[in-house]
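REQUEST ID: PR-0412
SUBMITTED BY: lab tech R.K.
PRIORITY: routine
TASK: structure prediction, single protein chain
INPUT:
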Amino acid sequence: MVLYYVEPVEYGYIVHGPEVTDVPEGADKLEEPSEEQETDEEEEPTDQEPFVFISYSRKDLNAIALSLAKVLKAARVKRWIDIEITPGKFWDTAVDEALESCTCLVVILTEASVASDRVLDEVESVRSHSGAGKVVPYLYEHCKVPASLSRIQRIDSTAHEPSPILTSFASLLHTLKDTYGL
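STATUS: complete
OUTPUT:
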């Protein structure tokens, strides 16, 4: 089942939904892997490779975090998400190492994430290392944005019509490419 088509264009990306019948040439097809397909294991980024840390509430994993991770992967943007921690690694250590070496952190803002101490700790960890410039808030649903994030320009998926998620994903990809070189 096709989830999205990610089309690289001169100034960023266009993300098309699965309803597109005329797929643009050069667009990468992002599909749900079938049970028979092997998922290509991706190595965790090294300290030298630029990558995006995806911060989210576990309650939002299926609603938005996995889709965002898949779109970034289809756009060939290295990303780090905690569900891909190598088995046997200490979770806290892996998260802390990724936070210290990430190029930027995309924090998915929802009612659940702004209530999560872990998400807010991840944001503060990145901000303490390199300031607000490495944090990209992504407003997925209306919620009370924490004071520590309220003065940082965010991508608002609730404001775009008719395809809020696709438009905001394209905006995020454009930001990651232009601002962070990813």
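NOTES: The CA atoms of residues 69 and 79 lie 7 Å apart.
REVIEWED BY: pending
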